[in-house]
Write a structure and sequence with these properties.
- The structure holds two protein chains of two kinds.
- By secondary structure, chain A is of the alpha+beta class.
- In chain A, β1 and β2 form a beta hairpin.
- Chain B is α/β, with parallel strands linked by helices.
- Chain B has a single domain, classed as P-loop containing nucleotide triphosphate hydrolases (Rossmann fold, 3-Layer(aba) Sandwich), CATH 3.40.50.300.
- In chain B, β9 and β10 form a beta hairpin.
- In chain B, α3 runs parallel beside α5 and α4 crosses α5.
- Classes of the chains: A alpha+beta, B alpha/beta.
- The interface between A and B is medium-sized, with 28 and 37 residues.
Chain lengths: ~375, ~270
């Protein structure tokens, strides 16, 4: 048996390395990684990537459509440019925008624009893509107050993209410890912790979200609200992870090396952290990837109904709340862009999580446990 | 001279299948005495309570009633006396593939054994690890390697090294060779004898193998259904078994009467 399992250990080691490479070749995984990479990079460098800040208003451009990018001015080829637009009203008093075709405003890469402090550290006034005043560049259109939707999306990504990571980190921590402890100790500790999990899981998630949000004071600053949302979302989702981890540690605690550690006087916490939880890692890593979208959607849902991040701060959820009326969406369909970003991000995390789960399948990882 | 280990009237029940009121009586008043340097072999069929007894002595399981005296002191695992006992009683497990955490390096495995000791300087620690590894026949720079890099016999040596880190007085060997291939049996048994020559160590050797029991132990205890049914010097028990169960056990070891003693002492296992 010893020789056989030694061999199977080697085989498992080799195949796991091969499948790590294979992981990247799965359809969509590489594309998802790239897409997420772009989104996170854009959010990190939001001040530079976005032409404007998330609060800059231009009331004269309320619901301005996405800027048309031209290359021909007065019959001659011109470097890519936009025309300034001006609001006009038709016979039904409906607003529409006409281009002022007299003066082209060239798109400038690294052009000067609004001054900013990148991440509060580096000051500058260069932007990835901008146009000179008085024209305005609306890559994805403008909202009711003439704020650039693209700029707000990029800034909002900071909240919407990080809330998943922060929430997962917290609920992961709670879920691993609770699940590990329940499975390891067993007995009444197990029963008590699992009943607690079930109580949390029993309440429909969204109502629990609302109830918990109601318990948070409404005069919080945006940073405090962000923290509160992270805590609320993780409070809901740790239970599922804890239950699975508990099941795994129930079997892991029967391993001889756990018995050996106990017999040598190693403390329970140390056994859980060093001998039990590392062996659940392959599962929990995939579980984490698959639970990030839940946070993004949760934040969006809270912000959508006005309980999350408050205007003027941008998050993908509260930007969508502007698109709640049918009239506005038919008149300015570009208000739906945040939904596209949410869908893409959620899909990317799901694709990567699915692939990770297949690669780190507990049955395949069982080789090293022999 | 007082006994190293004295086990008195140990009783341990396990709950039966879920829903049934029946309990499984793993230990039914087990008594055992271990004199210092008188290695004791504990033999008996599977499920007779050998491993439960070992676990209770080791302190990872609690007895329902009865006492365990170690060096004349009752074993308690919740205070400082328990910490002392845990340093002095160590165990080598049956399967070296599951007794070593695959994610631990040899260094981690050996360091873990010292978790009750006062923290020592890194250089001292490393020297101590090298010394213990050398004493179990593992040389070279292996501290940074993982268990999967070793064969079964080598892994069992690492497990033995882990048990030796704290200079234990009592080493419980729970079928330490039955998961290893035949060629390694003799080497590991010889290692145990060698270690006992150079240190004040006493074995409680749990085994199925009569020949291995004969090779290692001065005394033998035969266990059946949670009780010690026969106990005495190895030669006497094997030569004139008194209890019918012992006779059955010896008869089951087919080649016991066929082969000569010399052959047993060469470490060949039955079958």
């Amino acid at each position: 048996m010893n020789q056989a399992s030694a061999n199977s250990d080697c085989v498992a080691a080799v195949t796991s390395r091969a499948s790590e490479l294979f992981f990247l070749r799965r359809p969509g995984v590489l594309a998802s990684l790239w897409a997420l990479g772009f989104l996170y990079a854009a959010a990190l460098l939001a001040e530079f990537v976005a032409p404007y800040s998330f609060v800059t208003e231009a009331r004269a451009y309320s619901y301005a459509p996405p800027s048309k990018i031209h290359v021909v001015h007065e019959g001659r080829l011109h470097r890519p440019f936009v025309y300034d637009v001006q609001a006009a009203f038709d016979a039904n008093h409906r607003r529409y925008y006409v281009e002022d075709r007299t003066r082209p405003f060239a798109l400038e890469i690294f052009g000067r624009g609004e001054p900013y402090r990148l991440l509060g550290l580096f000051s500058g006034d260069r932007h990835l893509l901008t146009v000179r005043e008085p024209a305005r560049l609306f890559l994805l259109g403008a909202d009711a107050r003439g704020r650039d939707i693209f700029s707000r999306l990029v800034h909002g990504g900071r909240i919407s993209l990080t809330i998943g990571l922060a929430g997962v980190a917290l609920s992961f921590f709670i879920g691993l410890l609770v699940g590990g402890a329940a499975g390891y100790f067993g007995g009444w500790i197990d029963s008590a912790l699992m009943r607690l999990c079930e109580m949390v899981m029993m309440v429909p998630g969204f109502y629990l979200l609302l109830a918990l949000r109601a318990a948070v004071p409404d005069n919080f600053t945006s940073v405090q609200v962000y923290g509160a949302i992270v805590i609320i979302l993780s409070f809901i989702s740790w239970a599922g992870l804890a239950r699975v981890i508990r099941g795994m540690s129930l079997s892991l605690r029967e391993r001889d090396y756990v018995l050996a550690a106990r017999s040598m006087g190693v403390s329970d916490l140390r056994i859980i952290v060093t001998h039990i939880l590392p062996h659940t890692l392959s599962y929990s890593l995939a579980a984490v990837m698959l639970s990030i979208p839940g946070y993004i959607l949760g934040e969006s849902a809270l912000s959508l109904i006005g309980l999350g991040i408050q205007d003027p701060y941008a998050s993908w959820g509260n930007m969508l709340s502007e698109a709640m009326s049918l009239v506005k969406v038919t008149f300015a369909p570009w208000l739906l862009w945040p939904a596209v970003f949410i869908c893409v991000t959620v899909a990317c995390f799901n694709i990567i999580g699915d692939a990770l789960r297949d690669v780190l399948d507990p049955d395949k990882a069982a080789g090293e446990r022999s | 001279m007082s006994a190293l280990l004295e086990v008195k009237d140990l009783v341990k029940k396990f709950p039966g299948r879920r829903g049934s009121a029946q309990t499984v009586l793993a230990l039914d008043g087990a008594n055992l005495v271990l004199e210092s340097s008188q290695h004791l072999a504990l033999v008996g069929e599977s499920g007779c309570g050998k491993t439960t007894l070992a676990r209770i002595i080791l302190g990872v399981e609690r007895a329902d009633s009865g006492t365990v005296l170690f060096e004349g002191q009752p074993l308690r695992y919740d205070g400082s006396s328990g910490r002392v006992a845990r340093r002095k009683i160590r165990m080598v497990f049956q399967d070296p593939f599951s007794s070593l955490d695959p994610r631990f390096t040899v260094r981690d495995i050996l360091a873990e054994a010292l978790c009750l000791e006062a923290p020592a300087a890194l250089a001292t620690l490393r020297e101590r690890m090298r010394e213990v590894l050398r004493s179990v026949g593992l040389v070279g720079d292996i501290l940074g390697r993982y268990p999967r890099a070793f064969s079964g016999g080598e892994r069992q040596r690492i497990a033995i090294a882990r048990a030796l880190m704290t200079d234990p007085r009592l080493l419980i060997l729970d079928e330490p060779i039955s998961a290893l291939d035949m060629l390694v049996h003799k080497q590991i048994l010889d290692l145990f004898l060698e270690l006992a020559r150079t240190r004040p160590i006493t074995y409680l050797f749990i085994t199925h193998s009569m020949s291995a029991a004969r090779k290692i132990s001065q005394r033998i205890a035969v266990m059946s259904q949670g009780r010690i049914v026969e106990y005495g010097p190895t030669k006497q028990v094997m030569g004139q078994p008194e209890h019918p169960y012992t006779r059955a056990l010896l008869a089951a070891a087919l080649d016991y009467r066929v082969r000569e003693d010399a052959e047993f002492l060469n470490g060949k296992d039955e079958l």
